[in-house]
Specification:
The protein is an alpha/beta fold. The chain is 58% helix and 9% strand. The chain starts with a helix and ends with a helix. The structure holds guanosine-5'-diphosphate. One of its GO terms (cellular component) is endoplasmic reticulum.
């Protein structure tokens, strides 16, 4: 099952339950069962699914909830937390530092997407002001150096490799030494692909590791390999002890649950995910954001990071968010930013509620939908734009006026405002969490 379908199924299991007038223990168990089935069909390891079942069951005691408790929110939160727990290794990955040479070595099976991802990652750091380069230590596969070279030239990233030297350890050592001398800050080393159980190649990987002393070894895992991911990553972990995982091809048609289970098996953080063949198709991974997006709840953090990396003007929104606010104007500005950033169908997933709304749409439809939202905003007064959005539910005639003025329907206006309200809720709870964390720190 594709990750998107998994998200949709989990989401509808929760929504069906919380919408039903009678929320019984039996219906609650039914929801957990449906979530577990969906996860197993997506290749998530059965042990993890069993533990998720127990966690959700033990964190919500339906019969002990006070009569006026918001059951929907409590159940949603329990499911959300349990899913985050699956992809959260409770370990942090190495953070490259500016002003020093950070060596990152890639390992993984042949065809996993190492060479492609090396360049994506190099570009990612380059866009964030790091002096970045690539070393091709794959002397095993004919054409590997050529592929890396083409990618590197396209991304304007300096590279090192050899057409004559057949010893990958020598190439890796020389390349890294050269770039260190030239004070490069991110030196990414691509190694040759391995088929499982190839002892000689595993030995070579360890030798390269010894020669270049990487600050971080990254295992590249193909999302489509299903249950096999766990055994493979264990074998790599035993030999190369990688400290981070990148999952590629999450845009593909296959289940991603196997790769996700590998994270739990190796207690290693996923640092990025590959979302397509293009150079820009790499997203930073964060457990909360990932689950949030999976469930169509948006990815506020990812959106902010992306906006920041694109140098778009978003200071007023950032200021509002840190104050726990998110006005209608903030919503409009973010939508406008999204249109500048890339394929809409992908970006839309980052705005709470929008991913679900746009599911199944191609870029053209998504673009039309976004344009209509901008028309809606353009028909609002400054007071309405700067409001928290509540004036619309207090005076619904405003929505009728806006729909008429923008050539849209009242339903569309309502839909837009309900997303803004979701986002405002996220901003408010983020602020609350921040305050609690500060309080807790103060008590320590
Ligand atoms: P390597 O043998 O591990 O170096 O793998 P390559 O980098 O040569 O990639 C193998 C294939 O996977 C290529 O056709 C890539 O374009 C493709 N690929 C890599 N990452 C992704 C991804 O995130 N999404 C998709 N759809 N394809 C990818």
């Amino acid at each position: 099952m594709v990750l998107q379908d998994l998200g949709r199924r989990i989401n509808s299991a929760v929504t069906d339950l919380t919408r039903s007038p009678t929320l019984t223990e039996k219906a609650f168990d039914g929801m957990i069962k449906e979530i577990c089935n969906a996860l197993m069909e997506a290749d998530v390891n059965i042990r993890l699914v069993t533990s998720l079942r127990k966690t959700i069951k033990s964190s919500v005691k339906l019969d002990q909830l006070p009569p006026h408790a918001n059951k929907k929110r409590i159940i949603q939160k329990a499911v959300f937390d349990a899913l985050v727990d699956i992809v959260n290794p409770h370990q942090t990955a190495y953070q490259p530092k500016k002003g020093k040479s950070n060596v990152i070595m890639f390992v993984g099976l042949q065809g996993a997407g190492k060479t492609t991802t090396c360049t994506k990652l190099a570009r990612w750091y380059q866009a964030r002001g790091f002096k970045t380069c690539l070393v091709c230590a794959d002397t095993f596969r004919a054409g590997a150096f050529d592929q890396l070279k083409q990618n590197a030239i396209k991304a304007k990233i300096p590279y090192y490799g050899s057409l004559t030297q057949t010893d990958p350890v020598v190439v890796a050592r020389d390349g890294v030494a050269k770039f260190k001398k030239e004070r490069f800050e991110i030196i990414i080393v691509d190694t040759s692909g391995r088929h499982h159980q190839e002892d000689a190649l595993f030995a070579e990987m360890v030798e390269i590791q010894g020669a270049v002393q990487p600050h971080q070894t990254v295992m590249v895992l193909d999302a489509s390999i299903g249950q096999a991911a766990e055994a493979q990553s264990r074998a790599f972990k035993e030999t190369a002890d990688f400290g981070a995982i990148i999952i590629t091809k999450t845009d593909g048609a296959a289940a991603g649950g196997g790769a996700i289970s590998a994270v739990a098996a190796t207690h290693t953080p996923i640092v990025f995910i590959g979302t397509g063949e293009h150079l820009l198709d790499l997203e930073r991974f964060n457990p909360q954001s990932f689950v949030s997006k999976l469930l169509g709840m948006g990815d506020m953090q990812g959106l902010m990071e992306l906006v920041q990396s694109q140098n778009l003007d978003q200071k007023p929104t950032m200021k509002n968010i840190s104050a726990g606010k998110f006005t209608v104007r903030d919503m409009r500005d973010q939508i406008q930013n999204v249109t500048k950033m890339g394929p809409l169908s992908k970006m839309a997933g980052m705005i709470p509620g929008m991913g679900n709304m746009m599911q199944g749409m191609d870029d053209e439809d998504a673009s039309l939908k976004i344009k209509r939202m901008i028309y809606i905003c353009d028909s609002m007064t400054a007071k309405e734009l700067d409001s928290d959005g509540k004036i619309f539910s207090e005076q619904p005639t405003r929505m009728v006026r806006i729909a008429r003025g923008s050539g849209t329907s009242v339903r569309e206006v309502e839909e837009f405002l309900s997303q803004q309200q979701t986002m405002a809720g996220v901003a408010k709870s983020a602020k609350g969490m921040q305050a609690n964390a500060q309080k807790a720190q103060g008590q320590m």
